[in-house]
Amino acid sequence: MKKTEMPHNFFSQANESGRVYNKIQSFVFILFIVCPFISYGQKNTHDFNKEIVPLRGNYKIFTSFSSKPKAANLDVDKLKFPFSQAWADKVLSIKPVYLTNISIDDFKLPDPPANSSDQTRAELNYLLTLQHSRSLEDITESIYMSSNPGTPSDIGNSIGYWTGAQKLPLTDSLMDKVSKDGNFFLWSFKFKYARVRPYALDPKIHDLEESFASSYPSGHVTYAYINAYIYQELAPEFTDFFIANAYRMSHARQVIGVHYPSDCEGSRIFARQFVNMLFKNEKFLHDFEKVKKEWASTKAEDQKKTLETLNK
Fold first, then answer.
1. Per-residue pLDDT for 29 more than 70?
2. What is the CA angle 275-276-282, rounded to 5?
3. Which CATH code of 3.90.1010.10, 3.40.50.2000, 1.20.5.420, 1.20.144.10 fits the domain covering 52-310?
């Protein structure tokens, strides 16, 4: 707070004293009214810590099985996805834009189940069940989802915020920066765990997509949830829609046999923690405020044009 400078002859000039006193009194009153709101806003910024929705459905059932190895030093538990130092150096050379002071140790991810564990066997059996029951429509939809995650413009269009393709340069820029942060930590975890893909543990699983990276956590599912958690802050009334889309991506990756359910659950946990960290980051929040204004103005302008068209 700025220090108020008193005039040298403050006590000798009654009228001047009264005027200054009134100004000080007004200033203090304004501070009394405004400061709680400033404090509240700052508190919300730094205390952003949304809880993850508890496990449900099959994901909850799988955790009832043991995730521990069947025995010590089994060969199957030594299986790891092949590691390439050159590839690791390349992808990890792109550093985070926002979370520059964060390491993977700041995240609290569960270790994936051991290859020989009862949980992994249960998940493999589940993938085989999906494989036996998947229709051509299931396969087509799952592969399409994996290849077309949707742009911010697509998302806004799907919830009726605007019609047709929209130019959202600030949103695109923000999501590009977020992906740099996300990729750095995602690849760090993939290299750390080096979990083999399902087909490596059960040859009866016929995956429908060639895999170039380890299994845990899933990149597709991670970004589906990261996007969902960010979009819900832009359009909170559509939170259920965004989360449902992420859940569908999770299921799609299992339908085509490339991910265990626990990969997808690990992705959901990672994404929630990652987005919580973003919303505590001042640089991200500065950019996000611009994105909020971009969405609001784009929505308002498009809806105005739509109303003009409807009233013709």
1. no
2. 90
3. 1.20.144.10
